[in-house]
Amino acid sequence: MDCDWHLYLGGNLVYPRPHVLLGRIPEEAEHAVVQNFQVQESQALAVQEKHYEKDSGKTLAHLVRSKSSDADNLSQCSSAYQCERAGSSYSGDEATSGNARRQYSQYATVTASPLVGLPEFSHLGWGHWFTLRDLEHATNRFSKENVIGEGGYGVVYRGRLINGTDVAIKKLLNNIGQAEKEFRVEVEAIGHVRHKNLVRLLGYCVEGIHRMLVYECVNNGNLEQWLHGAMRQHGVLTWEARMKVVLGIAKALAYLHEAIEPKVVHRDIKSSNILIDEEFNGKLSDFGLAKLLGAGKSHITTRVMGTFGYVAPEYANTGLLNERSDVYSFGVLLLEAVTGRDPVDYGRPANEVHLVEWLKMMVGRRRAEEVVDPDMELKPATRALKRALLVALRCVDPDAEKRPTMGQVVRMLEAGVPSREDRWSRRGHSSNADSESKASSSEFEISSDRRESGLSARFQS
User: Fold this and answer.
1) Is residue 77 predicted with pLDDT exceeding 60?
2) Residue 268 catalytic?
3) I need a labelling partner for 392 at 20 to 30 A (CA). Which of 55, 65, 129, 336 fits?
4) What is the average pLDDT across 78-82?
5) Is 223 among the domain residues?
6) Where is region (Disordered) located (predicted)?
7) In degrees rounded to 5, what are phi and psi of residue 214?
8) Do 180 and 285 sit in the same domain of this protein?
9) Per the confidence metrics, is the pTM higher than 0.70?
10) Is the bond preceding 262 in cis, omega lying within 30 degrees of 0?
C-alpha cells in the first residue's frame, strides 16, 4: 500500500533535545464561551448510500459518481493513499491530553491500538520507542522499493510492523538543522494529545544520528485530492460528506486551541493536510510548522510560514501569530469545500483569482447560491448553505479580533447539521424540503468594515 509522502516533509522549527516533554497538562480544560449560538449535540450526517469501489462491503461512499473522468492519473504513489501523521491513539469525539479531557460530542467509540502485539520498549512519554532494527525490518532495510517520496528534510518509507500494522516512516536527513527542529516540534506538539480528528503519531526512533517518526497510514486520500485531484475520479463528495470533514477539523482545532495547555497553533491548515479515512472523517495532519503558545499569548515572527492563500493577513503582514491565524485558514478551507475552488487560481478571471474576495463579491451581489461546487448533483438546502457561508465569512474577517473561536465555530456548524427526519424528508421530497427551508430560514446579516473588506451583504431567502 502506497502512502502520500509530501505530508511528511518540511518543517521550520528549533533544535531538539529528544527527551523534552510537554509541560504539565491541567486536569480540567476550561470550556470556551460560545456567544449568540445555542449549543447542540452533534447529529448524524446525511450521506449518499453508495459503496466505495475499493471495499464495497464495508464503506459508505459519501460521494456522487462523477460524470467525467479526472485528468489526473493514479500512477503516482500519493494518488490513492494517504498516511496519517501526528496525533495519537484517541478514538471518538472525546479528546484527551494527559489528564486533560474535553468533550465535543456525547458519542465515543473504542478501537484497538495498532501497537497491540508489539514487544514493550522504553517510552519517553510521547509515543512508542522503536529501535533502528525494528524500522529496518519494517522497511526491508529501507529499500528503494519502499520509498514513498523524498523532500528537503528526509525520505518517507512505507513499512509494516511485526504485528502487521502498515505505517509510514519518515527518516530525517542526518543533519543538525531544520530536520532536527521539525522532529522536536512535531513530537512536542502532538505527542500527548488524543483526538479522533488528529492523525496519529505512533512513535519515533532516536538512535545515534538517526531521527525517525512513525505514523499510521490512512488509505482514502486527502481533501485536496477529493476536491481537485486524483480521488475525484471515484466520485464527487456530497455536501454532507464535506461538512462532516470540515466539522471534524473544526473540533480538532478547538481542542488544540482551547482544551490543552500549552495550546497548539497549527500554522498550515490547508486541504492537502486534511486526511480522510474510510468513514469520511477528516483528520488534521502535518504539525511540522506548529507553534506552542501559553494561555493568552501571541507570537511575533520575522519569518512567516504557511501556504499562500490560507495565511491570515495580519500574520502575513506583521508576523503576529495566535490561534486566530488558524481560524482564518479554516475559513478558507470551509469556502474551498463549499465551492470546490482553489484558494488562489490564476487560471480564472482577475476578479475570481482569490477565493475569499470572489466569495465576498458574490454575496454582496446576492448571488450566494451560485458559489456551490457545480459538480455536486444534490445541492445543499438554502439554509445549510447560508450557515456555512456565514461561518466561513466570520472566520476570514480581516479584523482578527472579530473572528470567532474554533469552539464557537463548532457550535455554529453543529447547529446546522440536519436531523435524520430532515434527511429522509429531503430525499423523498427534495423540492418541498427546499421550499420549506427557504420559508423558514432567517436572514443572516454579514457585515465587515468597508474600509477593510468592502463587504456589507445580507443573505435573503
Assistant:
1) no
2) yes
3) 65
4) 31
5) no
6) 418-461
7) -115, 125
8) no
9) no
10) yes
